[in-house]
Amino acid sequence: MLAMIFLRAIRQIIDPPDPNIPRPEFDVEIYKANGQKVNGRVVCTSSNWANNTINLKFIESGQIRKFKACLMTRFNGKEVML
């Protein structure tokens, strides 16, 4: 059986409400709107939950990219549930 995590729980982990809590690194798999799969080790640099978007910095390349949070399919090896 595959482990699962709700997107709401992920929000609390990657973008803690308390600014004194450091943002953790995590593994992610996201499918872009065009169907392209993007995965890697990232850290959340900012989020806009009203627009359902997150900015993720890829640890290996240092690149920052914006994604729709609802397109996340895996978080630290767990299937993401909306």
What is the CATH class name?
A: Mainly Beta
The biggest beta sheet reads: 7 strands, mixed
Overall body shape: globular
Taking the alpha carbons of the first and last residues, their distance comes to 18 Å
Which percent range describes the beta-strand content? Answer: over 45%
Pairing-aware structural class of the strands and helices?
mainly beta
CATH topology: SH3 type barrels
Largest sheet: spatial strand order: 1-7-6-2-3-4-5
In terms of quaternary structure, the protein is single chain
Q: Please state the second-level CATH architecture.
A: Roll
Number of domains: 1
Q: What is the overall pLDDT average?
A: 93
Indicate the radius of gyration in whole angstroms. 12 Å
H/E element order: EHEEEEEE
Indicate the percent of residues in helices. Answer: under 10%
Spans where pLDDT lies below 50 across 5 or more residues: none
How many helices does DSSP assign?
1
Number of strands: 7
